[in-house]
Task: structure prediction
Amino acid sequence: MDIQQVVIALFEGFGMSVAIFFATLAVALPLGLLFAFLQKCKFKPVKYLMDAFIWIIRGTPLMLQIIVVYYVPGLLDWGFGIREEFVAVLIAFSINYACYFSVIYKGGMDAVPKGQYEACQVLGMKKSQAFVNVAMPQIYKNILPPMSNEIITLVKDTSLARIIGLSELIFVGQDFLNKGYLAPFFATALFYLAFVGILSIVFAKLEKRTNRYR
Amino acid sequence: MEKILEIKSLNKSFGLNHVLKDISFSMQKGEVIAIIGSSGGGKSTLLRCLTFLEKAQSGSIWIGGEEIVPSELQPVKPKFMFVQKLPCGSGKKFKFVNKYEENGKKKFKFFTTVPVDMTYKYKFFKKYIPTDESGNPLSEINVSIYPKDNVLREKALKMGLVFQDFNLFPHKTVIENLIMAPMLVKNMDKQVAINLAKEQLAKVGLSDKENAYPCEISGGQKQRVAIARALCLSPEILCFDEPTSALDPELTGEVLKVISGLRESGTTMLIVTHEIMFAREIADKVIFLDGGKILEYGDAKAVIDNPTEQRTKEFMDKILKA
Result:
């Protein structure tokens, strides 16, 4: 077994993991904000629907959701199926993580004191101006620690994509394991450790920047 | 003298809790009025109604000779009332549908809360009939007509408010706190806004703190920044909602000094306060508010030294002994 071959294969798998990671973040971060607004909607039926949806998504395993997104449209014979594994994984991951993010966003919004909005109103600001200029920076500070937690979990959750045959890092490692090579499989841990290490440093920097106030 | 603020029979209730009962008073330009009274008497609610943070159910508000919130008699034929529980502390919210005819057309109107010059008779499940205090059903009710939000926002700039707990923006420096509203609301140029803010900061004696964050300055300084922030929009009337209640006696002094300074420069002020002796010194007139009603209204020294009402006497005795 050529070591160079192994390293190239592992890096290819890691590339796929990173792609899933960033694509999921790109969709789930804004989608989570939308979910959070729907959850705070004053029209009650929308709020209840959103609550039920979040209950279902958070209450079932992500692995099951990937399988449902990938296979169920085809099985039900709706005339379309999701053939592309990456798209199926992206849909399942984005919706799942958007639900978790929305709860974090909501907590961050609720933690902004009512007095801040009142001060804005007395100063004649529109609600949108108050949200962008006053509430958002405070929400950002509030959500940073729980968000970093969730995002680090996402790094490792990318390994679930192997269930529908997407060749990400663990999938590649397992391939070697099946051929009887143990070391490459365990070496995958180094990739995760390095990636999470970089993320931890980035989040620590971001948190430090918000520490200058309050 | 020019009448700058006039309120006529203002009523406000939170659900069944009738907080303001027929409040009427007026204010001249350059006058300082102190509102005193025990907690829960409606002082803060009155101030919040005047700065449009709360909407009154009936009564009219005039600011600077302009009727900003008119009041109108409307026929009442209540069909249903919905009782909605609000988050902790806000009590219940009453919604009711008023059906009436205008130019031969049937119209419905929803009121989020029922005007309060009446009591409610619980008829059967979730149906209420508005009645007067002796229990007779009402045919007409007095309703405040608030303008649309964007109009109201513009008019509300005539009133400035300083909060009890400052409510400075924690993520902005002192100077950024001051220039934010003029730049966003009045579209002021940044340099013009900064000059204005520096001028106001000098007025409250904090020129050296302009680049500090609110968490880096003391409570008294925070309150002075809050006063400067309100002044930046040059309101016609500056309202204070217990400006010194969150401060210790030493810091209270520096805030009161700023308020005295504003009086010297002729600012019209409405001050809710527990500092009776300060009110006696600074205010032209005093309003004693208890149980949602104005019990006494008159010259500051006369009211505080020689109250006429029994309730006011009790209150003064307790305060002055403490």
